[in-house]
Structures are given as structure tokens and as C-alpha cells.
Amino acid sequence: MRLLLASLTAVFIAHAAPVVSPQRTTCTNKTQRKAWHSLTRNEKLDYINAEKCLMSTPAKLGLSGPRTVFDELQLFHVMQTPEIHFVGAFLPYHRFFMHAHEHLLRTLCNYTGAQPYWDEALDAGNFSASVILDPKTGFGGNGVGEGNCINDGPFKDYVNVIGPGQANTEHCIDRIVSDCMSEVGSKQIVDGCMQMQNFSTFWPCIEGGPHGAGHGGIGGQMLNVFSSPGDPIFYLHHTYLDKLWWDWQAQDLSAR
Ligand SMILES: *[C@@H]1O[C@H](CO)[C@@H](O)[C@H](O)[C@H]1NC(C)=O
Ligand SMILES: *[C@@H]1O[C@H](CO)[C@@H](O)[C@H](O)[C@H]1NC(C)=O
Ligand SMILES: *[C@@H]1O[C@H](CO)[C@@H](O)[C@H](O)[C@H]1NC(C)=O
Ligand SMILES: *[C@@H]1O[C@H](CO)[C@@H](O)[C@H](O)[C@H]1NC(C)=O
Ligand SMILES: [Cu+2]
Q1: CATH class for domain 37-250?
Q2: Would you say the CB of residue 105 lies under 6 angstroms from ligand 2?
Q3: Coiled-coil segments, which residues (predicted)?
Q4: Domain boundaries in the chain?
């Protein structure tokens, strides 16, 4: 039986090979995701402009609510929230979500770079001084006034139509930066997660630690478990978490 299976497998592989191998060889140009802090000014502006393009590309799927492709991504997250948080699918779902966003930037908005990430351990405990909040080469600063609307930077005039939460109302991108809540994103806590031996202990460590630090440290819509992708910082935050997962996987690739 074992021999039969082995030879069937060999036949299958032999037949499948001509179909599979051309797909494998087309991936000649790998992109490399880099930390926002390490991007040049022009790389930052290219990314910001591509995101603004996604925010002005009309919605394609005929769903009720979204006006733009950016809104459609946000709505998917709202709809899937109960299935994708506090479960093992948390990291895989968000890996796929970051890839979808990156793919849309590249295919709809002529973006040629990779999805950048925010190395939050560098800024933990001091998010308010982060370069990510720069009004020219970042995402603008903290919210102000009664509605905590951001009032500088490239995204200050974007009208979110999805959220807050599961509601669909017109509102600004709002933030309530908390240096205190960002402390849980420290290198010490990240290093602790990296020591976890099993996925079943690794993902809750990431979700409860650095994940919570990024959402709580930026605050406002970023702190809303449903509608947080209404703040474009969301994509740099989750790409960072995805990198942490990759770093952990890379410690033992065959098992992880
Ligand atoms: C790979 O990237 C180089 C430099 O950007 C470009 O000239 C080349 O056409 C790319 N090749 C493919 C297959 O996309
Ligand atoms: C992307 O590039 C193509 C080809 O140059 C152009 O026709 C198209 O308008 C560009 N799209 C955007 C959103 O800039
Ligand atoms: C936060 O960072 C800024 C700029 O690097 C620095 O001036 C400030 O002292 C830092 N604050 C704290 C509490 O570390
Ligand atoms: C990892 O999982 C294995 C198998 O379930 C278990 O024996 C082991 O104690 C776990 N290790 C940790 C550090 O949780
Ligand atoms: Cu999420």
C-alpha cells in the first residue's frame, strides 16, 4: 500500500510538474517590505500618494456603503471582525488582508514599492514623537477638538463613510494618541513573544501585546476593533505584526 501510494505520488508529481513549474519560475522580482523609518522621503511620498489614489478610486463591488476601494477594504474588515480576532486565524487573516491592500496599491495605483511597516518597538512609550505622525512625510498627527479629527497631513480631508464600528456614517479620521498605551509595544515584550515555542501561545502574545499597543497608542478609530482600517496607519501596523510573525516563523521554518 505504501509503495502504491509512493508510486502514485511520483506519477502525480511527474504529471503535475510541467503545470506547476512555470508558475514557480515567474516570481523573479521579489519585493521587499521595509520599515517606514528607513524609507527615503520619495519612497514615503510614493506610498502616501498611492494610498490617496486608493482613496479616490471608485468602489468596484456594488456593496452598500463604500465609495472607494479603500472603503471596500475597510468594510470587509468590519464584516469579518467576529471571525478574525481572538482566534488562531487572527494572524493568517491579517497577512492576507495586508497582501490584498499591497496588491491593490500596485495594480490600481501604479505603486511599484512594497507595503511598508511601522517598527513600533522603536516608538513604544513615545508614539506622539514618532516620524509616522509627520504632517508631510507621514500620516499626520494627533486628533484635535471635540471630534478628535486629525487636522494636518495628507489624509486630513478624507471622509470615512464606513464606521465607527458597524455603523456607516460620514466622519473624519480621528485619533487620540496615548503614549501610555503604546508602552506594551516595547522591544522587551516583543522579545518575550519571540520566545514562545508554539503558535497557540505566540499569537495571543502578539494580539494582546504589540497588536493592542498599536491600536491603543494611536486611538480613535484605530482603537475600534471593527472599523480600524479607516485610518491608513492600520496597514503599517498590521504589516509590522505580520513581520513579527514572519520573524518567529523564520526561527524554525519547517515547523512553523
Ligand atoms: C524586474 O525588475 C527590473 C528592475 O526594476 C525590471 O527591469 C524588470 O523588467 C523586472 N522583471 C520582471 C519579470 O518583472
Ligand atoms: C497607471 O499607469 C497607466 C499606464 O501608464 C496609466 O494609464 C494609468 O492612468 C495610471 N493609473 C493611475 C491611477 O495613475
Ligand atoms: C520622545 O521623543 C522625543 C523626540 O525624540 C524626545 O524629545 C522626548 O524626550 C521623548 N519623550 C520621552 C518621554 O521619552
Ligand atoms: C507546545 O506544544 C506541545 C504539544 O502540544 C506541548 O507539549 C508543549 O508543552 C508546548 N510548549 C509550550 C512552550 O507551550
Ligand atoms: Cu483586525
Answers
A1: mainly alpha
A2: no
A3: none
A4: 37-250
